[in-house]
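Can't attach files on this board, so I'm pasting raw text. These are the components:
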Amino acid sequence: MTARLHVDLDALVANIAHVRATVSPAELMLVVKDDAYGHGLEPVVLAAAAAGVSWFGAFDVRTGCAVRDAVGDDARIFAWIAASRGDLDAAVAARIDLGIGDAELLEELAEAARAARASVRVHLKIDTGLHRNGVRPEQWPAFVSRAAVLEAEGLIEVAGVWSHIAEASDSEDDDARAVYEWALDQATAAGLRPATRHLAASAASFARPEFRYDMVRVGAFCYGIRSAGGPSADHLGLRPIGRLDADVVEVGEEFVRIDLGALDGLPSSLQRRATVGTPAGTRSLVAVGATDSLVAAWPDAVVGDVVTVYGPGAAGESTATDLAEIIGTIGEEIALRVSPLVERRYTRR
Amino acid sequence: MLTANARTAWDRGIRAYDASILDADAWGHGVELVRDVLATIGLEARTHHVGVTSADSVPVASRTDMLSAIALFGLPGAEHPAVPALRLTGTVLSVKDLREGEGVSYGYAYRASADTRVALVTGGYAQGIVRALGGAVDVAVAGERHPVVGRVAMDVCVVDITDAAVRRGDEVLFLGDPAEGEPSLVEWVRAAGLTAGELVTMVGLRAGREETS
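---
Top answer:
Structure tokens for the assembled complex are below.
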């Protein structure tokens, strides 16, 4: 397989600068879960840290520990999934800030902190309507009271209160924010002083200033992935950092063959519906096979020509989100389906 | 299961396998493991070239004189019944109440029609549990089926467990053996409009892998 994902670290750094300028004075937490959305954890984290990013969102403890290994002691690393006591112990040892949205989990964490003779920074999660993790409002007053007791015992330090919003509609998000405000008041009443309040992810961090609070958690926009159905990357002032290329390996009269297929992460449902970039501009993606695909030919096509499946658009290609919209999904899923076996190549000035 | 499926082919007189079985880390099953199994049974690799002149999608080997990926990995559409070689499980992270009318996950694509309970489960589209499965397929916990509700997120999804005794830490079966009534790729293919091959490969490449015998 000759296919490779080019990752433009200059574009990443430019996107980060633009996001920070947009959300200021709120801070940016760069979300790097799932191998930095498939772009490669370590190069992304190192470039971001060099650009001044001091908060990283890791999702799980394993990723959090990998970020700690990459950036060293100074960065704040936030993980919000701990599936086991072993995860909690590892998080405590790596000084990871933990998102806690479950009363039972808070007790497990307190035990882990007691065993490690450590004080663990936690961000308490209120469920503002998404109904994934997060404590339901009716259980929140008891939850924050219990957290205040554990803080007084020195086992935890409540560093933040946070939530996820559904981005279903502005009015429903407003309702969610009202619940969030109420939860902050309750935390204050319980004697907690969370320094970092965070609610918004990519879309709301740009479109809804009142959702920014002290920090926003942004992944997609830093990678230049716009929201499906949302404004273009250009309009947002962002540039896609990933470009998926494959070589032409065979030339026929009507079609050329590239060696990238469905088993490499190109959804077969794009066949006959998507276009790709070629040396002659935009061409139709005619067929997607298991490990190779056919593209409508162009005059003078030769073996070794480069076809760009998605990217910033220089060869007439679609963006990841353009492809996603054709098959009813989001750009993040297109980026994350690119097989880990596809080589990542990094460019930096 | 790999070994059993390969042996079944041998017993039917097949002596070669389609070399494309080894593509993409053996379709996410682990190329070293798969090569070992095939060598132990005594099957030999054979390649076959598909031309550039046809606009049909490149067919997965359908020749009867060699073992295909579908038959070896036990994917839907195998001519002779084969057991899936890959099982995909997740873990319950938390369980909570959901009241009538409340939505679940991004866009509130699902709303509870009555008071119920939901479990947050590890596994999302970054692990190959494609977004199109939200609201379309079941998982199984302790042998009982429950629907995935709302949008599948990058790393988690939500399952409606009603009154089942499901707890944090429980194992959740995403993909098992359809012959045993377990959730399987048959439902995934229908819901996602993708091939069984690409679905199973991405699961195998992205999720943590454990060998069983």
